[in-house]
Give the backbone structure.
Amino acid sequence: TPFTVDFDYRKPAAVVHERFVAARTELVKEYGELPQLAAGHSLGALMQVLLCSLYPEYGKACAGAALVSYNNKPASDAIPLFEQAFVPALAPLEPLTRNQALIMGAKDSVVGLRRLGFQAARGLAQASPLTQLVMNDDELTGALRDAEALASLTDQIPDVLAQISRGASEFSPSPNEVRQLISDSLTIDYPPLVISFEVDGLDESSALEEALSDYTRVSLPGTHLTPLAARRLLVPSVLRPDNLLFDADGLVAEIDRYFTVALDDLTVKRQAAAQEVVEEPRQPVEDADASTPNI
């Protein structure tokens, strides 16, 4: 689920939860009750942890949760000299952030220009004979779609800068508060899968492990970018080395294996629960006449 970055992590978590509940309601109407599986990468892994802690019904409904490259660094660690340099430098811009019409107008202009630019790029790429030498039509379509998706992330920059100019200097809840929240309120019945990569300075899976009471731990070759699997965006297939971004397919296989076992466990639990209902002995009904004392 896409979400907008905010210094208060509870805000995007609430938006994600609202969208998920709405989507699930519609799916249930069409397909009936479906198993719920949670997965998140980096900040997305943190969002899943918050969802399973802040919304108990969400966590209890999860048959399993795959938390990949969990990241919950404070702003001061994630961005060098953030509080010392960035916050003071952007503070003078605070009066400008009060004019929401100006900010929205600027964002709309940027979005419009970006869409026109990518529309033109598609036309030029499809018309160029050189394009066919390095990638087929499907790769071209996918590459441009991925590039536009990455470019759309810049839409969030004005809002983030506005928050900083208004004094935001740290994420909330803090890492310590999140760990306490996990210890007190995490509601996933099946042990989560915690995945990290061998070359990843942003990963904080070890901190997550300290807060979890039960989990499955896997370390894979790769980097923080391996889950993005953006191979077609970076290099055409004819020029692509075999080990680019390491083994993204291995990550997919590990998650698939975990969810398969988690769903099997869910099936067993449901069958056992149904059997208990069938075998539950009936309570004897007392005879009203027999219980009435003779006079």
Q: What stands out?
A: The chain has one domain: 10-271. The two ends are 73 Å apart (CA to CA).
